[in-house]
Amino acid sequence: MRFEITAYRHGEGVTALQVEAASAEEAGNNIGDQGFEVVSIRQTGRWNKFQRKDRSFDLLLFSQELRSLLDAGLSLIESLGALSRKETADEKRRLIEALIRRLREGKSFSAVLREFPAEFPPLYLALTAASEQTGDLGSAMARFIEYRGRMDAIKKRVISAAIYPALLLGVGGCVILFLMTYVVPRFSRVYEDFGSNLPFMSKLLLQWGALIESHGLQILVALMVLGIAVVAFFKRKRTGWRSLLRRLLNSKALAPVRVRTQTYTLARFYRTLGLLLHGGIPAVTALGMARELLDEEMQVALDRALIEIRGGVALSEAMERGRLAPPVASDLLRIGEKTGDMGEKMTRIADFYDEETARWADWFARLFEPLLMLTIGLFIAFIVVLLYMPIFELAGSVQ
């Protein structure tokens, strides 16, 4: 495999290298033996030639490279200058050069980043602002990198568990669509002479086939117009899709999914709180910053909890009253209040619920996949049996 490595060596600055190795670890070791300090490693391949050269700004990669250069002893401006010189994408290089110019004007790093809200979210700004008080920007970058790594890991586990069911559903849907729009209309013409001798369900199926054959184009256009109208309606209302999803999750049939969705939301919320508290942000301020991660119902509960906290109520008690702290979280918050290590306890809460979400996603995928396969198979078999039932009856009457 080929790896593209950004490395730093004293006297040469930052260098981009291409290395052939069996793994990223081996590639990094090979470069390290040559006296380089690895900044970042990215696997490349033939398909990379077809990618866009100016990809969107990768905040995680930027943080990893900046942290490595800061740990190597370079100043902030020197580190950004090194990143600018190695960058091949014009848009990214211009962004980094703009950061350098503003830093040389005497502005703080957090104030400079605040001028580019599209690339640097409020969470990132808060961490850099807090690190300026302690003078340890490298540690802030490390905390952000770990935070993003944990968030991306649980997201990948959930997505990977949903890939096969989604693929199975798509393929099964295409097969059913082919049967209903192509095969059934053909059979309807074959059975026209049978008249009332057909079974009732076969009659309905073949009537559908005749309808598709005679008015298929009109039905397709009507469905497309309806789909565009629905998308436009929900797009006009910012919370339209969220409102629809919330109504679906509030149904009794999807109650287990609603519980797991809330668990995942709270895990993200507490992980963000832990990151902010580790970065030196006050608890009340951190709660306000992490508020947007919650849904509307939870945001209302958090607002009530913030009022109680400002009034002197303990954080664990206020969060428990607002149903924002399940039993495990409530216990850990109380321990954190006694030990004074709330940031660590909130990170542990997030770890606990992330693992619970990942286990549930794996279990759901293992249960849902065979059920989905069985359902699609039975539906296809039902259509085929209805199509061939008149032939079976005709063969029986001949005998």
UniProtKB/TrEMBL annotation:
Gene Ontology terms: cellular component: plasma membrane
Q: Name one GO biological process term.
A: protein secretion by the type II secretion system
Going by the UniProt record, its keywords in alphabetical order are: Cell inner membrane, Cell membrane, Membrane, Transmembrane, Transmembrane helix
Q: Which PANTHER family does the entry mention?
A: GENERAL SECRETION PATHWAY PROTEIN, PROTEIN TRANSPORT PROTEIN HOFC HOMOLOG
Protein name (Swiss-Prot/TrEMBL): Type II secretion system protein F
Q: One Pfam family from the UniProt entry?
A: T2SSF
Family, similarity comment = Belongs to the GSP F family.
Q: Does the keyword Transmembrane apply?
A: yes
Instruction: Identify the domain of life.
Output: Bacteria
Where is each Type II secretion system protein GspF domain found?
A: 62-185, 269-390
Topological category with respect to the lipid bilayer: Multi-pass membrane protein
